Amino acid sequence: MGITNLTKDNFEAEVLKCDKTVLIDFSASWCGPCNMLAPIIDEVAAEQEDVKVCKVDIDDQIQLAQQFRVMSVPTLIVMKHGKVVEQSIGLVSKAKVLSLLK
Questions:
Q1: Which of 62, 55, 47 is nearest to 101 (CA)?
Q2: Cβ contacts of residue 66 below 8 Å, gap of 6+?
Q3: Cβ proximity of 62 and 4 under 8 Å
Q4: Domain boundaries along the sequence of the chain
Q5: Active-site positions?
Q6: Does residue 47 sit in helix, strand or coil?
Q7: What fold characterizes domain 3-100?
Q8: Contact call for residues 8 and 61 (beta carbons, < 8 A)
Q9: Is the pLDDT of residue 57 over 90?
């Protein structure tokens, strides 16, 4: 499955109304650790068919970053049924990303 770019306009439809587990990657193009995490997120998106993977560019989507109190990037948030169930801040391994989804 591909990666969905989230905006304040499509957030409800793409995340809150999704019946799958949703992994949201809050990142920025200027962030070194974000750029190192990106290929891992791409792999997870390709391999985990039961998970919807989304990205939020914090510079373009300030409102979403504020809504989730994102103070550092990369921040990963896992949501199920519209609720945050896991969160991770900073560069993490693929194994850690997968453990967040369990």
A1: 47
A2: none
A3: no
A4: 3-100
A5: 31, 34
A6: helix
A7: Glutaredoxin (3.40.30)
A8: yes
A9: yes
